[in-house]
Amino acid sequence: MSRHLLLQIKIDKSLLKCDSRPMLEKDNPTQDNNNDKMDWNDMVEVFEQWLPYIQPVAEVLIDLADISENDRILDVAAGTGEPSLTLARRYRNQNIDIIGVDSASALLKQARRKAEAEQLSGLRFQEMQAEDLNFQPASFDRVISRFGLMLFDNPLRGLEEMRRVLRHQGKLAVAVWGEFHKLPTMTLIWDVLMKAMPPEKRPEKPRISNLGRSDDLEALFKAAGFEAYEIKSFDVPYHFDDFESYWSINTNGGLLEEPLNMFSPSEQEILKKEVEILSIPYQENGHLIFQNESLLVLAEKT
Ligand SMILES: C[S@@+](CC[C@H](N)C(=O)[O-])C[C@H]1O[C@@H](n2cnc3c(N)ncnc32)[C@H](O)[C@@H]1O
Predict the structure, then answer these.
(1) Of 25, 148, 195, 247, which residue is 20 to 30 A from 68 by alpha carbon distance?
(2) Which of 186, 191, 175, 179 is nearest to 143 (CA)?
(3) Domain containing 6: what range?
(4) CA-CA distance, 132 to 272, in Å (whole number)?
(5) pLDDT by residue (tens digit) across 6-23?
């Protein structure tokens, strides 16, 4: 690996542009990239670090869903509790019924812990596969889901299930991540690692961008039976105090840790230096600021 690495490590000037497209990106959105089928139960602490960055998406999804008092709401792939917890805080002391479901029990345990600590009422969490929701048809006024759909083994089945449990004229608000090259927080490091790796060792692109193209997302909503829907792009800004904090949060756990650990410590130092240079266009007064694209879908069951 080291000889290959030495050959590969030279700064690619084209990557210094903020809108650069990853050199290794494959453009097939339907590829079966099963490689990042991580066990979410091991991810509680790692995932919790990212929550403040994606909080704006919880707020905007709740706004989009146009929720009223007395509504019954389902949050699919609720993880450690979002957007359910934000919603319960907004409707504190009002009558609201929120159920958050997820396939990872450890994440739900954390969600329950938080709800209890804040004495939030009107919400509960249940372990459940999105593709097989254990609820009656038309039993919810609203369904919400943040950053889960593109990770399901079967997104179409998951979406059909969300539609089935929605009542007539009920609304669904979903957030997914945009295309891979529109997620610079991650791709800046990913691209450097992939370029330095022999092609046969490169992992598939992670699932997070599987629904990142609005055409694909639209096709999925149509296939699931939705006739009325709207897709919007929503930028999620990630601020880091400095390069060190950017590097450590991205490489200690999560999708980048494993590919990085394929390199020796000295190789990792060289790669880190390269990423630091490439991060210059994202620096403002020593801070790093990345805009990452998410796609929001508001659909109605007609
Ligand atoms: C990126 S996290 C998002 C969690 C939460 N919605 C949030 O935004 O904080 C993705 C979640 O999807 C869940 N998940 C993935 N596939 C699932 C499936 N088939 N059924 C239910 N949950 C699933 C994972 O367990 C994980 O909690």
Answers:
(1) 148
(2) 175
(3) 2-19+31-300
(4) 42
(5) 333 333 333 333 333 222
